[in-house]
């Protein structure tokens, strides 16, 4: 049992990013920095949710920037949902559109945006969106403030 748990942790640590829906990927700043991996997955757009992670390849992809502060220091992540939804809708409307949504760790801010997007675009409940994303990226962990923002957004 312990060996299985350690294997899962190692798998999560080395996972580049997680495909949540066809063409919609959730990952970390580290994932966003890896040009070859982005190209291998045919990413066309990058939605940078963080205020503390640079746009690593601005000439290679179409970027959206939300500038959300981490650790509950932001005034409210819900304020960026309309901008995020418009960016994601536009990117995914293209036949070849593939988007990486990221923050620093791919667990809090970007996960919150992806959860909100599933609630918006797929009309999922928060519980269903959470279960769906968690089944593809086990390490999501939106902070309490962001969870409250998701509850208020439904």
Automatic annotation (TrEMBL):
Q: Give Gene Ontology CC terms.
A: cytoplasm
Keyword set includes Lyase: no
- What GO biological process terms are annotated to this protein in UniProt? negative regulation of MAPK cascade
Q: Which keywords are on file for this protein?
A: Hydrolase, Protein phosphatase
Q: Which Pfam families match?
A: DSPc (PF00782)
| PANTHER family referenced in this protein's UniProt entry, alphabetically | DUAL SPECIFICITY PROTEIN PHOSPHATASE, DUAL SPECIFICITY PROTEIN PHOSPHATASE DDB_G0271350-RELATED
Report what the protein is called: protein-tyrosine-phosphatase
Q: Native species of this protein?
A: Saprolegnia parasitica (strain CBS 223.65)
